[in-house]
Specification:
mainly beta; Porin; twelve-stranded antiparallel barrel; 12 strands; Tubby-like_C; LOR
Length: 212
C-alpha cells in the first residue's frame, strides 16, 4: 500500500542510522530514513479535495476530504487507495481552535488518538500544543508546532524539544504556472509521517478558517 513512498525515499536508506520509533497513528508510517513529502493545495486533478500529499515522484500518498454536512466540521485523511486513515474534527465552541483526531473514519471518543489546539487565543506566530489521548490532564503538551503558516515555515517538536519534522515553502515552475500552493514537509527517521501530515492538515484548516 505504501510501497511508493518507500521506493521514492530508498536512496536515503544507506546513510540513515537506526532511530527510535514514534508511532502515533501506526508503525506502518514509520521508516528508518528521512521522508520527504510535498503538500499541494488547490490541486486541479483532485475532484473532492484541494489538499494532497505527494512523494518526491509526484505520487499521491494522502488526500484530505471534507465532510461538510456533518454536525461537526470534519475532514478525513485518505491514503492513495481511498482508505480512511484519520478523521479530523473541529471541536465546537472552542476558543483555541481545537481539533480532535480519530482513527479511521470514526468520531467515537474510544478512537481518539490526539488533539491539537492553539497555545493562546492571540498569536503573532503559529503555535499549536498537541496532546495524546492518554494525556487527560494536558498540563504538559506531548508535541508542539511553532512557526509561520503564511511563510509555510513550521517546526514540530516532541515534548522533550526534539525536532521530529518541519515544513517549508517550495517554489516550482509547475506550481507557479498552475496556481498551486506547494510546500515541502520533511519527517525525521522513525517518526510517524501520517501523524506529521495530520498536524500540517490541521494548520491548513486553521488558516483556511481565518483563525491563525
Amino acid at each position: 500500500m505504501y510501497k511508493s513512498i518507500h521506493m521514492a525515499n530508498q536512496g536515503n536508506m544507506k546513510m540513515a542510522m537506526v532511530a527510535p520509533q514514534i508511532a502515533i497513528v501506526s508503525p506502518l508510517f514509520c521508516v528508518s530514513y528521512p521522508v520527504e513529502l510535498n503538500v499541494v493545495r488547490k490541486m486541479v486533478t483532485l475532484r473532492d479535495s484541494n489538499f494532497a500529499v505527494v512523494d518526491v515522484n509526484g505520487n499521491v500518498i494522502f488526500k484530505l476530504k471534507g465532510k461538510y454536512l456533518s454536525l461537526h466540521d470534519r475532514r478525513v485523511l485518505l491514503d492513495a487507495t481511498g482508505l480512511p486513515i484519520l478523521s479530523l474534527r473541529q471541536k465546537m465552541f472552542s476558543l483555541h481552535s481545537r481539533w480532535e483526531v480519530f482513527r479511521g473514519d470514526s468520531s467515537d471518543s474510544r478512537n481518539l488518538i490526539f488533539s491539537a489546539r492553539k497555545s493562546s487565543l492571540i498569536q503573532f506566530r503559529t503555535e499549536l500544543n498537541v496532546f495524546l489521548a492518554k494525556n487527560k490532564s494536558e498540563h504538559l503538551y506531548d508535541f508542539k508546532v511553532i512557526g509561520s503558516w503564511l511563510e509555510k515555515s513550521c517546526v514540530i517538536f516532541s515534548g522533550d524539544s526534539t525536532i521530529i519534522g518541519q515544513m517549508h515553502r517550495k517554489h516550482t515552475v509547475e506550481s507557479v504556472a498552475l496556481g498551486k500552493d506547494t510546500f515541502s514537509v520533511t519527517v525525521n527517521p522513525g517518526i510517524d509521517y501520517a501523524f506529521v501530515v495530520a498536524l500540517v492538515a490541521i494548520l491548513n484548516e486553521i488558516h483556511e478558517s481565518g483563525h491563525d
